[in-house]
Amino acid sequence: MTDGINPLHSLDDWDDDLLRRYPRDSEPRHGKSTEEFRSYDDAADHVKEFYRLNHRQQTVEVNLQKREQFLKFEKRQMGIWEAMEYLNTLVDDSDPDTSLSQIEHLLQTSEAIRADGHPRWFILTGLVHDLGKILCLFDEPQWCVTGDTFPVGCQFDSSIVYHDFFQENPDYSNPEYNSQYGIYEPNCGLRNVMLSWGHDEYMYNVCKPFLPPQGLAMIRYHSFYPWHSEGAYEYLMDDFDHQMLEYVKLFNPYDLYSKSDAPPDIKALKPYYEDLIHEFFPPQLSW
Ligand SMILES: [Fe+2]
Ligand SMILES: [Fe+2]
């Protein structure tokens, strides 16, 4: 899978890099200078190359094209559990002895949420949050599936990891897109903002008819680190976004820090999750 287009050895290399950038028990960053907290410069070379490809190519034009391509949902019909198994067929160069399968990450996330006594929609959100990574199985390049997300169509915030790479993005020097608000109005609400394309935005759209707004926000914004962890883009937020931010922050540690060495017992957990899936989703969804 590793090549010039797909530099990550495994799709999870980006998730692992998040743990380097946001170690457990790290202090909140708000109000502190970025230099105090970050040494982004030390990402592994292949991960750095991934960020470069992502920042160079996530433009308004690409975004519109990807929406057109994928939000008609003409690729497949699958239930949620089937989609989990499908995602698990993703083969990459990760080390099978040390890395979790995609299903294991989903179940560890949802089980950690369940163990803390959260509502059923929240547990289910944990279970499905990364299913959009099936985009890889539709032959999408890594830079179009994973990575931190950020708005396109307005200035790229300086808090975005490896911000310098945006100089290679044509929107960076396009006066229509490079002012603070770009194509947006002040406090227009994030629902009116195009976020860079990836598994989050895709899965949010798949789930839109079925999950409550809090769960949808957790899915849509879970990789939007410049917003939920760096405090950027407040000037695009409306009151609703301020409410949703609290839920996204509540979700984030379950995604980042629920990974454990003890793999979940998939077979034993399946009946519980099949009931939960059935409560919210139809037997078949369009992907
Ligand atoms: Fe994710
Ligand atoms: Fe995740």
Number of domains: 1
Q: What is the element string, with H for helices and E for strands?
A: HHHHEHHHHHHHHE
- State the end-to-end CA separation: 23 Å
Radius of gyration: 18 Å
Q: What percent of residues adopt helix (DSSP H or I)?
A: 40-55%
Shape: globular
Low-confidence stretches: none
Mean pLDDT: 93
The unique ligands bound to this protein are:
fe (ii) ion
Discrete helix count: 12
Q: What is the number of E strands?
A: 2
User: Biggest β-sheet, characterized?
Assistant: 2 strands, antiparallel
Secondary structure class reads: mainly alpha
Our estimate of the beta-strand percent is under 5%
Strand order of the largest sheet: 1-2
Helices, strands, pairings?
Blueprint: H1 13-21, H2 34-37, H3 45-57, H4 60-70, E1 77-78, H5 80-87, H6 102-115, H7 120-128, H8 199-207, H9 213-221, H10 225-228, H11 239-257, H12 266-280, E2 285-286
Antiparallel strand pairs: 1-2
Helix pairs in contact: 6-7, 6-11, 7-9, 8-9, 9-11
Bound molecules: fe (ii) ion (2 copies).
One fe (ii) ion (FE2) is lined by residues 105, 129-130, 255.
